[in-house]
Amino acid sequence: MHQHPGPVDALGEVGIGDVPGQVRERDQQVKPAAVIFAVIGLVHEGPAAGAHLGQQDWLAVAYLAVAVTAAAFVMWYSSVRRLGASRAGLLTGVAPVAAAATGILLGGPDPRPLVWIGIAVVAAGLAVGLRN
After folding, report:
1. By C-alpha distance, which of 25, 122, 34, 119 is closest to 80?
2. 46's torsion region: left (phi>0), alpha (psi -120 to 50) or beta?
3. How far apart are CA 127 and CA 132, in angstroms?
4. In a 10 Å sphere around its CB, with 0-12 CB exposed, 13-18 middle and 19+ buried, how is residue 5 labelled?
């Protein structure tokens, strides 16, 4: 098996120990998506669009690359390893709850009553699904 030399190897692969199958799976998802979105960006915005990005734009790109992609990758596979695939899959229900909470924290409007009902349904589903 391939051992990653550290948290990031020479090709920029995120490694968490000996996880070649996980890295391969991630590559099969991320690399084609990157190519597709690059082509869409070039066709829609034009090749000079990148030159118009400011410092805050590049900070947002870095945040999305590190916090959202790399951190989520490590957290997901750590959850699968600790909880098992079926129980870790339940945690995807946390995404809409996190989105509502983030919106509130960033000064957005309070969620409407149906959102609160949805959050309650997600919480109940997680409580039932994660119960031993």
Report:
1. 25
2. left
3. 10
4. exposed
Q: Model pTM?
A: 0.48
Q: How far is the C-alpha of 97 from the C-alpha of 102, rounded, in Å?
A: 9
Going residue by residue through the chain, which has 132 residues, state the pLDDT in tens, using 9 for 90 and above. 444 444 444 444 444 444 555 566 666 777 888 889 889 988 999 888 888 889 999 899 888 888 787 788 888 888 888 888 888 888 888 888 888 888 899 999 989 999 999 989 988 988 888 786
Residue 12 burial by Cβ neighbours in a 10 Å radius (0-12, 13-18, 19+):
exposed
Say if CB 131 and CB 86 are below 8 A apart. no
Cα-Cα-Cα-Cα dihedral sign, residues 85, 86, 90, 92: positive
